[in-house]
Design brief:
Shape: globular
CATH architecture: 3-Layer(aba) Sandwich
Helix content: 40-55%
Strand content: 15-25%
Radius of gyration: 18 Å
CATH superfamily: Vaccinia Virus protein VP39
Number of strands: 7
Structural class: alpha/beta
CATH class: Alpha Beta
Largest sheet: 7 strands, mixed
CATH topology: Rossmann fold
């Protein structure tokens, strides 16, 4: 008899993800992606007064960008610590955002609750891609828009994930890489005929830091997957991982001086719900 493919333990994977994202201070990394969120809000053409949901909001980049456009905004994430950062940012700007705990695979709202459903470099990391796509579509009103920004597999961010993965236990069989969300083929497959329009633009974001070493020192403390990998390794393998990371940065760096200017491609996705 043919062996049946194993089903990955998604609950265990999500627990590990939550632990990784809770480590360090994600705001030290995520704040640089504000421009991606602002561009996404322009791409979906947000209208003031409309209901907006930011899924896997992190510390609120897209939620805050939508609030600046006078929308009625909710941001959900399954890591309480980052939500508190979002609340502090909203208070500092005098913006109204309802930050609450919630899972991209089980969005805690009824069907057709929102005019716009957004995710900036967040929902792509949920382990069950099909379930996540279903939920994004479910809570969006017919005729409403879903907007996503997802790093591509060939991007610097995608390759960073591959470097870290070399030093981590192999993923369970059947688990799809998050960076598939950064391919047009996969996005079309996930949304299928449940959208009446799907516009996809390939864009580039630039990681700008004072130096490659500054970025590496910051990332080893605050990038969850990298911190997790380093903590699991002995000293020699830690050195090997950091050396691989230095090589990756050097290969992408376009600054021509002591600073770091590394481009990283991403897909900007705008879909209209049927």
């Amino acid at each position: 008899m043919n062996a049946q493919p194993s089903t990955p333990n998604l609950a265990a994977i999500k627990q590990r993800q939550q632990k990784a994202w809770s480590a360090g201070d994600y705001s030290k990394i995520g704040v640089i992606f504000v421009v991606i969120a602002e561009m996404l809000c322009e791409a979906v053409d947000l209208r003031p007064g409309r209901r907006v949901l930011d899924v896997a909001t992190g510390h609120g980049n897209a939620a805050l960008a939508a609030a600046r456009r006078f929308c009625e905004v909710t941001g959900i994430d399954y890591v309480p610590a980052v939500l508190e950062d979002g609340r502090k940012r909203a208070a500092a700007e005098g913006l109204l955002v309802d930050f609450r705990e919630g899972d991209a695979e089980e969005i805690p709202f009824p069907d057709a609750s929102f005019d716009y459903v957004l995710s900036t470099l967040g929902a792509m990391f949920a382990p069950d891609q099909e379930k996540t796509a279903n939920e994004l579509l479910r809570v969006c009103k017919p005729g409403g828009k879903i907007g996503m920004a997802n790093f591509t597999p060939d991007s610097f961010a995608g390759q960073l994930g591959r470097v870290a993965a070399k030093y981590l236990p192999p993923p369970p069989p059947g688990l799809k890489p998050p960076f598939l969300w950064g391919t047009e083929e996969r996005v079309r497959e996930l949304f299928g005929d449940r959208v009446s329009s799907l516009e996809i633009q390939r864009r580039s974001f630039i990681f700008r830091y004072p130096s490659p070493q500054f970025y590496i020192d910051l990332s080893r403390v605050h990038v969850g997957v990298l911190r997790e990998a380093l903590e699991a390794l002995d000293a020699s393998k830690q050195d090997a991982l950091l050396s691989d990371l230095e090589d990756l940065v050097d290969g992408f760096n376009r600054s021509g001086d002591e600073t770091m200017m590394v481009p990283s491609n991403y897909l900007e996705v705008v879909a209209i719900r049927r």
